[in-house]
Amino acid sequence: MADLEAALCVRGRTRKRFLSECHDHLIDLANDVGPDDAAVAFGAPGIVAASFDAEVATRRCARAAWLAAVGIASVAGSTLVLIHSADATAHAAVPWAIAFFVCAQVSAVAMVIGLIQAMSIRHRVVPPADSMLLCRRTAIALVSAAGTMLAAGGALPGRGDPLVLLAGPALAIVAGGVLSRAWWLTRQLEGAHSHADRSPFADLRSLTRLPVPTLGPIAVATIGAAAVFVRDHGEQGTRLGGSLLMGAIEAGLVVAAYLALRAPLGLRTGTTATD
Amino acid sequence: MDIHWLSMYIGLVGSVDLLRGHLDGLLLAVLAEAPGHGYELARRVATRSGGHLDVPEGSLYPALHRLEQAGMVSSQWAHSDGRRRRVYQRTAAGRRHLASWQQERQTFVVAVDRVLGLAT
Q1: In which domain, by residue range, is B52 found?
Q2: ipTM score of the complex?
Q3: Do residue B57 and residue A127 have CB atoms under 8 angstroms apart?
Q4: What is the pTM of this model?
Q5: Would you tell me which of A100, A251, B25, B47 could form a disulfide with A221, CB atoms 3.0–4.6 Å apart?
Q6: Total domains present in chain B
Q7: What is the pLDDT of residues A203-257, one digit of tens each?
Q8: Residue B70 contacts A, CB cutoff 8 Å
């Protein structure tokens, strides 16, 4: 038991309950087969502790990803209220506008791939490096969401209902707290600092059992550029040259964001799920 | 997959590599008899398998935690043999999961038997 206690990283009520159950189990087992055989049958303390830690870390990281999605959706709502409360004649400065669109897209992408990962591991335990990757994706999504709201506020100062404006950030802070707890546990586990890559397309295939194709950054950038072009030219009636330029900027930003964030988001091309 | 993790995982499941991924289903199956605490469940798995499934008993608790988090089992403290024990009980979600797991496993076993020429 002393070895098990020393090896276990998880703290609080979960730790207390696990140790109590293991203690009871060992007493029963020792009564049946003797103390030496009981220790062998129970398993090596380091391995049992690492297995339980990894299980708890996986569940905490997945829960943090779901809570972060709620927080990010709330921040998006607060940001929309902020934008709509701005003076109708106000014009956003270009750097704020770029920061807004980049942060919003990075946040949405990081949140979606994090949620796909969280769904794909819901009945499984993953190596600590994969849990760490989920924490990183969630953290990037939350920080980018905060950046989105900040950029919107910087671009279009206005006055809105303080409760509505603060509700989103408050929920995001709660999600951040849950994420910190999951991160704190996961980072202590052996193997947590190894680099992990997980293709969201591979996760989607395992989730849906459909032949979801793997899209590279160029394909994603092309789809993004096409969407921006259609929206700009078709819906807003911008001239062809202007819409093409907007599409090209979008494609450039997607590629730049991919190059900057592919390592922390675990998206290096050609890699698949690590478990 | 990280090599250390792989060796640890295999070590945990031990020589019963066949058990990998089956532990959750086995626990849900033995919980169908009656609610029970961890030690009781380990004994039921051993008895019902005729002693062939040699699971390191410490590995039950991470599995029970996972099942509880997934809503497939519920647990509560109860007094048994003069001691306070955590007793597990299968939920409706656990019943459904077991039925689906049994179906998948049956399909898999039949397919393997056909390939091995064991199917009648």
Answers
A1: 3-116
A2: 0.72
A3: no
A4: 0.79
A5: A251
A6: 1
A7: 888 888 888 888 888 888 888 888 888 887 777 777 788 888 888 888 888 888 8
A8: yes
